[in-house]
Amino acid sequence: MTISLFIPCFVDQMTPQVGLAVATVLERLGHTVEFRPAQTCCGQPSFNAGYQDEARAVAIHALEVFAGAEAVVGPSGSCVAMMRVFYPELLAGTPHETAALDLAARTFEFGEFLVRKLGVTDVGARFPHRVTYHDGCHGLRELRLREEPRQLLRAVRDLELVECDEPESCCGFGGLFSVKFPMVSTAMAEVKAGSLARTDCDYIVSSDPSCQLQLDGWLSRQGKRPRTIHLAEILAGTAS
Amino acid sequence: MTAALPSSPPAAGAAKRQFLHDAAEHVRDVGHREFVRRALGGYYTSRDTQKARYRDWEQARDAASMAKWSAVNRLDELLPRFEAAFTANGGQVHWARDAEEARRIVLELLATAKAKAVIKSKCMTSEEIHLNQALEADGYGVVESDLGEFIQQLRGEPPYHFVFPCMHVRRDEISDLFGQHLGTPPTDSPEELTMIARRHMRRLYVDADVGITGANFLVAETGQISITENEGNARLTAALPRMHIAIAGIEKVVERLDDLAVLLPMLATAGAGQPMTCYNTLYAGPRREGEADGPEEMHLVLLDNSRTALLADAEQRDALHCIRCGACLNVCPIFKNVGGFTYGTTYQGPIGSVITPHLRGLKEWNHLSGASSLCGACTDACPVRIDIHHHLLHNRRNAARSSPDRLERIGQKLFAAVARRPWLFATGGWLFRKTLGLAKAIRPPVLSAWLATRDLPPAPAQSFRAAWKRRQR
C-alpha cells in the first residue's frame, strides 16, 4: 500500500523525528511511504477559534493535496480528528462535501492505522522501560482510540506499561486555549502531569505532539521527570 | 457574594474580565483545588459502580435522550397538554416570559396568600431569576431547606455547583457557620451537623405560609410534577405550607409517566453516582377532600427566560435536554480548576458555558465557550447525550461571525492565506525556527503567555520536510 504522510505543522517545525519514525515503522511493515510537500496545516487553529471561513479555505487546500491518496496517516490524534470528524461538518453543503467524506474515510491516526487497518500490534520493537500512556482527548473521544495504543505498547519487548490515576484527564493544551487562558491551561497540566509522574515511569507515551509540548513544557519548568515520547518513536526504535 | 437584582447592565467585557481575574486567583489556591478534586474523586467510583448495574448504559442514554428529544421538539403540543392535565388536577399554571415576570407572579401569589414566611427547597430556576433577593426586598423571610442551599444562604453565597451547592465548604467551616448563626456547639460529625439543620428547619416548615420548590420533570400525560431529592425537605416544603409554588423552565416537560422510568435513575446515577435519589415524588395538585396533607393551593410558574431562543437554534436545541444532573461539572477539568464561582453564572460548568450565551447574550458570555480545551469529557458524561463540547465550538463560531475580535480576525485571515500557499507556509516555518530563540528572549504577547509557566524546547536544525528530502536522496 502507498501511504501518504500527514505531518502536522508543529511536527514539521518542532519534532521532525516523530514524522520520520512513522515512516520507518510503515516502511518496515512493507509499505511505500510518500510525503506530499504541498501540505500545510489542518486548519484546526482557525476552526477552534470559530473562524470557519478561514478553516474551510485551509481544509480545501488539504483536500487538494491529499486527493487520490490511498491512505493518509498522521502522528496526531488531534489533527486527524480535524480531518476525520470536522472536515465533513465544515464542508457540508459545499461542492467539497464528497471529497471531505472521502478523505475522512482514508485518514488515520498512526496507532489506529496499525491496529485497525493493518491488523498489526507487534512491530518488533524493544524498549526496556517503564512507561505510562497519556490519552490525548481528540484521539480518545473523537476517534474513540483507547485500546489501540496500549495494544501496541504491550507488544513491545521489555516494556512495562502502567496506568495513571487520572487516565481520562486532559493535559490542558487545547491549542489557542493554552495562551488565551494560560492559568487554567497550566493548572490542568499540573494535575495531569502530576498524575502521570506518580506512576514512577521512565517515559510518558503520547500520540499527540501537542500534548507532549504541554506536558514537557510544564515538567521541564518544574525541573521534574519524566518526559514524554511519541508512540512512533518507541515502535521505530529511534527513541534516544 | 449574593448577587443584587440586575439594575443597569455592566460594562462590556466585564464578565470576561471577572472570569480571567477569578480564574487566576483560584488556580493559585492549590489546597482548594485539591479539596474539590478529592470531593469529586469518590463520584467516579460510585457512578461507575451504578452504571455497571444497567444492562446497557449507552442504550439507556439513547432512551433518555430520545425521551427529552421528542418532548423538546414538541413543546408547543406538550406544554398545553400538561397545563390542561395540571389544571384538571386542581393546580394553576402561570406563564412567565422572563425573570421579571416570574418574580412578579410569585410576589403576587404571596400577596394573595397573605404570606409572611416562605420556605424553599432546591430550585435553580429561582437562582436564575434572583427570586430570594426580590422576596427579601419585599420583606418576606425566606429560608432554604436543602442543607447545601441552607449553608450557602447563611454564607451569603450563590451555589458553587448547581447540584452540590456547598461542595467547596469544609466541615469545620460548616460547624463554625452554624455556631455563629444558630448558636450550636462545634462538632466534627456530619450526622450532628445535619441534625442541627434539621432541628432548626422543622419549626420553619410549620410556620411557613408558602413553600417554593423547583421541578425536575413535568409529566404532560398526567399533569404531575416530579421532584427528586435526597433529604426529604422538598416533600415537607411542598406539603406543609398552605400554598405550594413550583418554578420550572418550559423544557422540563416530558410526554409520558413512563419516561421517568429511565430519566429518574439516570439523573441519580449520572449526577451523584446513586442508583436512585432517595426521594422521588410526583405531585398531582393540591390537597383533595379526604386527604390528610398537602397544600390548599398549588401553582406552577413556567419560565421561558430565553429558552425559546435556544429552541429556535436547531443546532444547539439539544441543550434543552439538560436534566441538570451536574455530571458534566463533575468530570470537567476546567470546573475543577477554576471553581464554581469563577463562571459568574447561575449554571456553572460545561452546560452553563453552552447555555449562558443564549440566556444572557453571546457577546458578553462567549468567553466561557473559549475557556475550554474541548476535551469532551462533558459530552461523554452527559446522560441525555447533549453535544456539549461541540456546542462550545458552535458558540465560538457564532461569536466570530457576530462580534469578532479585530486583531484575532486579522491574524486568522493572515494564517489562512499563508496556509494555502505551501512555499509561504514553509518559509514561515523556517522563519519561526530561526527566530524562536530570539522570540523567547523578547517574549511577544502570545509566547509570553506560554513561557510564564512552561518551557519551550529549542527548534530543531531541520524541519521534517527538509529531513525528508535528504532521506529520499
What would you say this structure looks like, in words?
The complex is a heterodimer of chains A (240) and B (473). Chain A is built from 13 helices and eight strands. In chain A, helix 11 (182-197) crosses helix 12 (209-222). Chain A has helices spanning 9-13, 16-28, 44-49, 52-65, 77-90, 97-106, 110-117, 137-142, 147-154, 177-180, 182-197, 209-222, 231-236; strands spanning 2-5, 32-35, 71-74, 107-109, 130-134, 160-162, 203-206, 227-230. Chain A has 240 residues and is an alpha/beta fold. In chain A, 52% of the residues lie in helices and 13% in strands. Chain A folds into two domains: 2-117, no CATH class; 130-236, Rossmann fold (3-Layer(aba) Sandwich). Chain B is α/β, with parallel strands linked by helices. In chain B, the strands form two sheets. In chain B, strands 1-10-7-4-2-3 form a six-stranded parallel beta sheet, with helices on both faces. Chain B has a four-stranded mixed beta sheet with strand order 8-5-6-9. In chain B, strand 5 (217-219) and strand 6 (224-229) form a beta hairpin. Chain B is globular and about 95 Å long. The chains are: A alpha/beta (240), B alpha/beta (473). At the A-B interface, helix 1, helix 2, helix 3, helix 4 and helix 8 of A face helix 1, helix 15, helix 19, helix 20 and helix 21 of B.
